[in-house]
Amino acid sequence: MKDKTNENKADPCLPGGLMPAEQWALPQTSVRRSLKDAIGHAFKQLQAGVSQAEEPFESMDELPELSASQQNRLAPEPDYSDQATAIACGLERARTEGSLSREVAFLVAPPFSGVQQALARFPEPGQSGSIESGGEEWAIILPPDTLSFDDHEANEWWDRQDLSRPWVIPELADFWLRRLSGLSLVKELFRRIANGDTGAGIVGCSSWCWRYWGHYLENAQMSPWTPGPMDAERLGAWFTYLASGSGKSTVIARMTGDGYYVLPLAETDENEKDKDSKKRKYSNFLRDLAATSRGNPGVALAIWQRSLRARPDDDTKLEDADEKTEKQSQTADCWVVPLERLSLPTMPQSKESVTGFVLHGLLLHNGLDMASLEVVTGVSTYELSLVLSRLKRAELVVWEQSDERWRVTPIGYPTVRRHLQSWGFPVDQF
Amino acid sequence: MIDDLGIKDAFASITGQALLQAVLVIVIASLIMVAVQKVLPRVAEKLGGKPRLYLLASVPLLRLLIILATIVIVVPILVKPSFENMVAIFGALALALGFAFKDYANSLIAGIVTLYEMPYRPGDWIEVDGQYGEVRAIGTRAAEIVTPDDTVVIIPHNKLWDSLIANGNDGTDNLMCVADFHLEANHDVSRVRELLRDVAFTSPRTKTWQPVLVIVFNKPWGMHYRLKAYPFDPKEQFQFISELTARGSAELARQGVRFVSVPVSVS
Questions:
Q1: Other C-beta atoms within 10 Å of B105: how many?
Q2: Which of A215, A357, A424 is closest, CB to CB, to B204?
């Protein structure tokens, strides 16, 4: 199964490489952990409404959280330009190996996996993306301001886009609305791709949107690709890469309870052939984190950021390390709170169907403004405001000022997905 | 008569203490049964989705297990479980039931059969003798269903022998709903079919991984369309059908397709 995986060890920003979507598999976890999660989920559903916690996050330990600068150094947001380069290389390799033969490549990924952000940076000059496009610059296709089109108007809109030279759609979910007049653009795009009317292109698509269109266009076989899931090893490598910047420094992270090592990874330690390292005990934290986040890097990073702590006596050391230059900064210690002691967002008790419509609508469309959300869900603006404010307090959704959209939060995504699934809503495959 | 059956001998060994013990066991078993029947459905309501259905379905099974366990415990307390005694007791019981409580016994036996064959489970949407509703509880003698108008209908289990029982979701959370559209003829049929399919796909209540079908019949008065789709929760069925009908009608009107107001009967 792994032989077709386009794993690219040289790209630490995309440790899982790219793989055909049908080969994607959930990172494995222990039976104990699975049972614990299932029982915990059922218990939380029963508990809903019994305890009315206003504050969704409650630190269950005495340790201070990392300051913004410490967090920015130890668990920063990834550089999506590097990821774009890695994706371009991955696709190029797949084409060379013959496992990807289509003119238009579909990249399907769960929300927060960073594919959309990476694809939006695809045509930046000097990137190896130009290899994939045969030296030409990529054209980014952006969605129109309004998404209400009939079939004829959709046809005309696509005629105005230049799809003859290499093109990229960072997020297909931005091109439609779940209403009768909101389907035409995507339908027309799929028709053109199936007919071979476009040049080389890459379509990024949220897994939720893809699931919907897979059901709608049941005969469309687009053979999408996806980033490989983040298992414990890949997460460890990725967190180390993010924290080390240039890759020269080492991060040491240990569990707060028993002092077991989370980072560096066991393998890395063995390579160092340090006698002391062989005596070290390693925690299962990363394995559990990979399972909790379902191998989703954005979700894993959000939980990782929340779980990091500094010992009071380590504060000075960390601050000093912060101030050091890159060359000087060789080691930085931080502590990790066990997952079971982290209070992650929980679903507030409310009318299931309306909450479900809102959350499902947000995931299908990669976030929506209030007006579009009203159209898509059929819920009145007044009721939407009430539901959204509750979900916002529970840290499950967030209003993003930059593009004026409501979105599900990465830290709340596992809870949201699980609840939507148990309520019977269609969920993605990842 | 009682002497002939050996009932007197069978019960000769019953003491006051044994009787007290038996009553105590029966009371405890009854309390457990009541607790199971009250608590589990409430827990199931909180869980929703598939866990709700599984938990509801386990209620009658648990009740059967408790009844069997009670019999197994109580009988040896009261009588010596010899072959003769058993024949005597069950023979007398069969006679009494056969003559005095024939219909009641019929329902009890049918109740046991329902636990085995499972023609309906709590959480199922069934129709029996024109009564449609969700099975709320399965008792020893009868099942309770709640109709969409919030009326509780008691259906004796012996309906199982001679009535047609229609089960909409059959222990799953997949319940197909149908919205009917009666349209005048002379329109683009394939366009209308496509449009109605889109109506279902754009409903937030639709379970998109289940089939969405548009069936059309040519009638003497025009065209009869049936839009079939699954809501994400069987409880949403009426809202779902209403939404499909309202949105479908609005869009058809916008497209200039007219409805048949009164079907014309043809002799």
A1: 18
A2: A357
